[in-house]
Specification:
The protein has seven helices and eight strands. The chain is mainly alpha-helical.
Protein backbone atom coordinates (compact mmCIF):
# COMPACT_ATOMS: atom_id res chain seq x y z
CA UNK A 1 0.00 0.00 0.00
CA UNK A 2 1.54 3.35 -1.01
CA UNK A 3 1.96 6.02 1.65
CA UNK A 4 1.03 9.36 0.10
CA UNK A 5 0.55 11.63 3.11
CA UNK A 6 2.94 12.36 5.99
CA UNK A 7 1.57 14.70 8.65
CA UNK A 8 2.99 16.19 11.84
CA UNK A 9 0.64 18.66 13.57
CA UNK A 10 -0.21 21.19 10.83
CA UNK A 11 2.78 20.33 8.58
CA UNK A 12 1.77 18.00 5.76
CA UNK A 13 3.82 16.37 3.00
CA UNK A 14 2.00 14.86 0.03
CA UNK A 15 3.86 12.36 -2.17
CA UNK A 16 3.06 11.02 -5.60
CA UNK A 17 4.91 9.39 -8.47
CA UNK A 18 2.93 11.31 -11.13
CA UNK A 19 1.75 14.85 -11.77
CA UNK A 20 -1.90 13.81 -12.09
CA UNK A 21 -1.76 11.80 -8.87
CA UNK A 22 -0.32 14.71 -6.88
CA UNK A 23 -2.90 17.17 -8.23
CA UNK A 24 -5.67 14.74 -7.24
CA UNK A 25 -4.24 14.51 -3.70
CA UNK A 26 -4.03 18.32 -3.46
CA UNK A 27 -7.69 18.56 -4.51
CA UNK A 28 -8.66 16.01 -1.85
CA UNK A 29 -6.64 17.92 0.75
CA UNK A 30 -8.50 21.11 -0.09
CA UNK A 31 -11.90 19.38 0.20
CA UNK A 32 -10.99 17.79 3.53
CA UNK A 33 -9.75 21.12 4.90
CA UNK A 34 -12.94 22.90 3.83
CA UNK A 35 -15.10 20.19 5.43
CA UNK A 36 -13.61 21.02 8.87
CA UNK A 37 -13.62 24.78 8.25
CA UNK A 38 -9.86 25.11 7.69
CA UNK A 39 -7.82 26.65 4.89
CA UNK A 40 -4.47 25.86 3.29
CA UNK A 41 -1.91 28.66 3.05
CA UNK A 42 -0.87 28.67 -0.62
CA UNK A 43 2.02 31.07 0.12
CA UNK A 44 3.63 28.46 2.39
CA UNK A 45 2.86 25.51 0.14
CA UNK A 46 5.54 24.54 -2.39
CA UNK A 47 6.26 21.70 -4.80
CA UNK A 48 9.50 19.78 -5.29
CA UNK A 49 10.24 17.36 -8.11
CA UNK A 50 12.75 14.73 -6.95
CA UNK A 51 14.70 13.54 -9.96
CA UNK A 52 15.34 9.78 -10.29
CA UNK A 53 18.93 8.58 -9.92
CA UNK A 54 18.69 6.91 -13.33
CA UNK A 55 18.26 9.67 -15.92
CA UNK A 56 16.67 7.26 -18.38
CA UNK A 57 13.65 7.08 -16.05
CA UNK A 58 13.12 10.85 -16.10
CA UNK A 59 9.76 11.59 -17.71
CA UNK A 60 10.14 15.35 -18.14
CA UNK A 61 12.33 18.22 -17.00
CA UNK A 62 9.38 20.58 -16.45
CA UNK A 63 5.77 20.20 -15.35
CA UNK A 64 2.64 22.38 -15.33
CA UNK A 65 2.00 24.31 -12.14
CA UNK A 66 -0.06 22.62 -9.48
CA UNK A 67 -3.11 24.49 -8.23
CA UNK A 68 -4.53 24.75 -4.73
CA UNK A 69 -8.02 26.04 -5.34
CA UNK A 70 -7.53 29.20 -7.37
CA UNK A 71 -3.85 29.60 -6.41
CA UNK A 72 -0.88 28.28 -8.35
CA UNK A 73 1.83 26.59 -6.30
CA UNK A 74 5.49 27.45 -6.74
CA UNK A 75 8.17 24.93 -7.71
CA UNK A 76 11.31 25.09 -5.54
CA UNK A 77 14.57 23.15 -5.46
CA UNK A 78 14.58 22.87 -1.65
CA UNK A 79 12.38 23.48 1.37
CA UNK A 80 12.55 23.14 5.15
CA UNK A 81 10.37 20.52 6.81
CA UNK A 82 10.45 20.24 10.61
CA UNK A 83 13.77 22.09 10.65
CA UNK A 84 15.48 19.83 8.09
CA UNK A 85 16.28 21.13 4.60
CA UNK A 86 15.19 18.72 1.85
CA UNK A 87 16.40 19.25 -1.73
CA UNK A 88 15.29 17.84 -5.07
CA UNK A 89 18.56 15.88 -5.27
CA UNK A 90 18.09 14.47 -1.73
CA UNK A 91 21.50 15.91 -0.86
CA UNK A 92 22.22 16.90 2.76
CA UNK A 93 24.75 19.60 1.89
CA UNK A 94 22.27 22.46 2.33
CA UNK A 95 21.21 21.14 5.73
CA UNK A 96 24.85 20.81 6.85
CA UNK A 97 25.51 24.38 5.78
CA UNK A 98 22.44 25.46 7.76
CA UNK A 99 23.89 23.73 10.81
CA UNK A 100 27.23 25.51 10.32
CA UNK A 101 25.53 28.93 10.34
CA UNK A 102 23.39 27.93 13.31
CA UNK A 103 26.37 26.76 15.38
CA UNK A 104 28.30 29.98 14.74
CA UNK A 105 25.18 31.98 15.62
CA UNK A 106 24.55 30.13 18.90
CA UNK A 107 28.23 30.33 19.89
CA UNK A 108 28.33 34.08 19.28
CA UNK A 109 25.30 34.50 21.55
CA UNK A 110 27.04 32.49 24.28
CA UNK A 111 30.20 34.57 23.94
CA UNK A 112 28.26 37.81 24.10
CA UNK A 113 26.14 36.89 27.13
CA UNK A 114 28.15 34.33 29.12
CA UNK A 115 31.83 35.03 28.43
CA UNK A 116 32.50 35.84 32.12
CA UNK A 117 30.93 32.67 33.54
CA UNK A 118 32.97 29.97 35.24
CA UNK A 119 34.60 27.19 33.26
CA UNK A 120 32.11 24.60 34.55
CA UNK A 121 29.11 26.73 33.58
CA UNK A 122 30.57 27.32 30.12
CA UNK A 123 30.93 23.58 29.57
CA UNK A 124 27.29 23.03 30.50
CA UNK A 125 26.14 25.87 28.27
CA UNK A 126 28.11 24.64 25.27
CA UNK A 127 26.77 21.10 25.66
CA UNK A 128 23.21 22.39 25.91
CA UNK A 129 23.17 24.99 23.13
CA UNK A 130 25.80 23.90 20.61
CA UNK A 131 25.52 20.11 20.58
CA UNK A 132 21.79 19.90 19.85
CA UNK A 133 22.25 18.46 16.34
CA UNK A 134 18.95 16.63 16.41
CA UNK A 135 18.84 15.77 12.69
CA UNK A 136 22.47 14.71 12.39
CA UNK A 137 21.45 11.06 12.05
CA UNK A 138 19.60 11.84 8.80
CA UNK A 139 22.70 12.92 6.89
CA UNK A 140 23.61 10.35 4.27
CA UNK A 141 24.40 12.16 1.01
CA UNK A 142 27.06 14.89 1.22
CA UNK A 143 30.55 15.85 0.13
CA UNK A 144 33.45 15.14 2.49
CA UNK A 145 34.57 18.77 2.14
CA UNK A 146 31.20 19.96 3.47
CA UNK A 147 31.47 17.74 6.55
CA UNK A 148 35.04 18.97 7.10
CA UNK A 149 33.69 22.53 7.18
CA UNK A 150 31.27 21.55 9.94
CA UNK A 151 34.13 19.85 11.82
CA UNK A 152 36.21 23.02 11.51
CA UNK A 153 33.22 25.10 12.66
CA UNK A 154 32.79 22.88 15.72
CA UNK A 155 36.45 23.20 16.72
CA UNK A 156 36.51 26.97 16.12
CA UNK A 157 33.40 27.48 18.24
CA UNK A 158 34.91 25.57 21.17
CA UNK A 159 38.14 27.57 21.01
CA UNK A 160 36.32 30.90 20.67
CA UNK A 161 33.91 30.32 23.55
CA UNK A 162 36.56 29.05 25.97
CA UNK A 163 39.14 31.65 24.97
CA UNK A 164 41.75 29.40 23.34
CA UNK A 165 44.00 30.70 20.60
CA UNK A 166 43.04 29.44 17.14
CA UNK A 167 46.40 27.62 16.78
CA UNK A 168 45.96 25.72 20.07
CA UNK A 169 45.79 21.91 19.77
CA UNK A 170 42.24 20.65 19.33
CA UNK A 171 43.08 17.45 21.19
CA UNK A 172 44.37 19.44 24.16
CA UNK A 173 41.27 21.65 24.14
CA UNK A 174 38.97 18.62 24.24
CA UNK A 175 40.97 17.06 27.06
CA UNK A 176 40.80 20.23 29.15
CA UNK A 177 37.12 20.94 28.52
CA UNK A 178 35.92 17.34 28.63
CA UNK A 179 33.86 17.91 25.49
CA UNK A 180 33.33 15.27 22.84
CA UNK A 181 35.27 15.27 19.60
CA UNK A 182 33.34 16.05 16.42
CA UNK A 183 33.60 12.46 15.18
CA UNK A 184 32.16 11.22 18.48
CA UNK A 185 29.26 13.66 18.18
CA UNK A 186 28.56 12.32 14.68
CA UNK A 187 28.73 8.71 15.85
CA UNK A 188 26.46 9.32 18.85
CA UNK A 189 23.91 11.17 16.71
CA UNK A 190 23.76 8.33 14.20
CA UNK A 191 23.54 5.71 16.96
CA UNK A 192 20.67 7.47 18.75
CA UNK A 193 18.75 7.87 15.49
CA UNK A 194 19.18 4.20 14.52
CA UNK A 195 18.16 3.03 18.00
CA UNK A 196 15.02 5.20 17.98
CA UNK A 197 14.24 4.06 14.43
CA UNK A 198 14.39 0.36 15.29
CA UNK A 199 12.50 0.81 18.58
CA UNK A 200 9.75 2.97 17.10
CA UNK A 201 6.16 1.78 17.55
CA UNK A 202 5.00 3.73 14.49
CA UNK A 203 3.49 1.33 11.95
CA UNK A 204 5.01 3.12 8.97
CA UNK A 205 8.49 3.06 10.50
CA UNK A 206 8.09 -0.61 11.38
CA UNK A 207 7.08 -1.34 7.80
CA UNK A 208 10.16 0.48 6.47
CA UNK A 209 12.36 -1.48 8.89
CA UNK A 210 11.40 -4.65 7.03
CA UNK A 211 12.38 -3.23 3.63
CA UNK A 212 15.86 -3.71 2.16
CA UNK A 213 16.93 -0.42 0.60
CA UNK A 214 19.43 -0.27 -2.27
CA UNK A 215 21.64 2.85 -2.52
Amino acid sequence: MPVNILAYADDIVILSSSWRGLQALINNLLLCAQSIDMTCNARKTVCVVVNPQCRSRMVSASFPCFTLGSSQLQFVSSFRYLGHIITNTLSDIDDIQREIKSMFFRTNILIRKFSHCSFTVKCSLFRSYCLSLYDIGLWRKFAVSCMNKLRSCYNKCIKSFFGYHRSFSVTQVLLQTGLLSFDTVLHNGAYVFIRMWHNSQNLLVQCLNSVDFVD
